[in-house]
Specification:
By secondary structure, the chain is α/β, with parallel strands linked by helices. The chain has 17 helices and 14 strands. About 45% of the residues lie in helices and about 20% in strands. The strands form 3 sheets. A 6-stranded mixed sheet has the order 1-2-10-7-8-9. Strands 5-4-3-6 form a 4-stranded parallel sheet.
Length: about 425
């Protein structure tokens, strides 16, 4: 047993009390070994699957603890929150269960699926503002006008205590952990886990990871000017303004904050899906993204990764998986120059078939490309085993007398498990 970390607004006792309150109210999520990832990355990896919560993310924990802490008068009047997705669903879900009226302000262009899921939990959804910061201003105005209680997504002691129960569970399941890697947006889950884990095991290291487009906590703790902005696949941690409470905790207890580029976040989503059969949103895959770029830092260590959520749009997931195949050289697009004559297309198909590659799509170009009238170009999308197989396909087609070039680009710079 470690020592209680004090002076941060939330203590181990608060988190332990939250854990008792959460029994039977949220999912006690599994902590699973990831032996294939471990062997490929050179460390012993365990995944804390918060994507298995009822609403698909860890937000269920802090939302319940905050709502339960309200007075009877506050519960009767109702609560308000602003969110683009996960926090909205967590608050709406538990508010419905506890009989508390809930208003959720969401950006005007929030994903339809998240808006409808929030409404399905009985919340009144107000879509206003182009960004989450504009939605926050609307929520503040409605709070004052209607006397509602604001449920902050991260900068609240009750919320931090609720999220900190993840750390208790991780060390109960794997007391030998050397490090825990946690996504950071506003910092609520990282703060809570840092307090509970460091109190129980002072020598454990806590690492945070942010999207490189939104390095708000990294910049705040390093005294750097704010630069956050852009379209990140890790929208759950795309936060421009980190919390004051959470910043103080992270500054004291988190060893280092890593920044993950978009390509690495994409690769991490695809790897979790393919190798672990786990669906993770961008924020949920961020801890693995950090390990992909920090192999030496974690070599030989026992590491827990917090898969904080799995609420990724299915179209985005499909795109990420297909782009992953292109990046790995398993899906390529070739352009082949041919004579515009009967039987030529069949000959090209036969040559490709001999290599064992699978033709996915064929585009026959006659009119819109700058080629002679008796010539044509065909674009062939093929599925292959790897980059070496692609080279074999190209050599075979060219050996049959057809000039061939690859249109898709194989990235050799991006992260992989190879």
């Amino acid at each position: 047993m470690g020592t209680t970390v004090t002076g941060l607004g939330v203590e181990l006792a608060d988190i332990e009390a939250a854990a008792r309150d959460l029994q039977g109210q949220v999912v006690r999520t599994p902590m699973i070994a990831a032996p294939r990832l471990s062997s490929m990355l050179g460390c012993e990896i365990f995944l804390k699957l918060e994507n298995q919560q009822y609403t698909g993310s860890f937000k269920d924990r802090g939302s319940y603890i905050k709502l339960k802490s309200l007075s009877d008068a506050q519960k009767a009047t109702g609560v308000i929150a602003m969110s683009a997705g996960n926090h909205a669903q967590g608050v709406a879900y538990h508010a419905q269960r506890l009989g508390i009226p809930a208003t959720i302000v969401m950006p005007e262009h929030a994903p339809f699926s998240k808006v409808e899921r929030t409404r399905s939990f009985g919340a009144r959804v107000v879509q206003s503002g182009e960004t989450i910061d504009e939605s926050f201003e609307v929520a503040q105005r409605l709070m004052e006008e209607q006397g509602l209680t604001f449920v902050h997504p991260y900068d609240d002691p009750a919320v931090v205590a609720g999220q900190g129960t993840i750390g208790l569970e991780m060390l109960a399941d794997q007391p030998g952990l050397d490090a825990i890697v946690v996504p950071i947006g506003g910092g609520g889950v990282a703060s809570g886990i840092a307090i509970s884990a460091k109190a129980l095991k002072p020598d454990i290291e806590i690492f945070g990871v942010e999207a490189a487009l939104f390095p708000s906590m990294y910049e705040a703790t390093h005294g750097l000017p704010a630069t956050s902005g852009g379209a990140s696949i890790a929208d759950g941690i795309a936060v421009k303004s980190p919390g004051k409470l959470t910043r103080a905790i992270i500054d004291r207890l988190v060893s280092q904050i890593f920044l993950a580029e978009e390509s690495t976040l994409e690769a991490a989503i695809a790897i979790l899906c393919e190798y672990q059969k786990i669906v993770a949103e961008g924020a949920g895959a961020a801890p693995l993204a950090a390990l992909l770029n920090q192999r030496e830092r974690f070599a030989g260590r026992k590491v827990g990764l917090v898969i904080c959520g799995g609420n990724i749009d299915t179209r985005v997931l499909a795109s990420v998986l297909m782009r992953g195949l292109v990046r790995d050289g398993r899906l390529v697009r070739l352009r082949v120059d041919i004579n515009d004559a009967p039987g030529v297309l069949a000959k090209v198909s036969t040559l490709i078939g001999r290599t064992g590659a699978n033709i996915v799509e064929v585009y026959h170009q006659r009119l819109f490309h700058d080629v002679p009238v008796r010539r044509a170009e065909i674009d062939v999308v093929i599925e292959t085993r790897n980059a070496e197989h692609v080279r074999e396909v190209i050599d075979t087609i060219e050996g049959g007398g057809f000039s061939t070039r690859m249109l898709s680009t194989l990235s050799t710079d991006g992260p992989s498990l190879g």
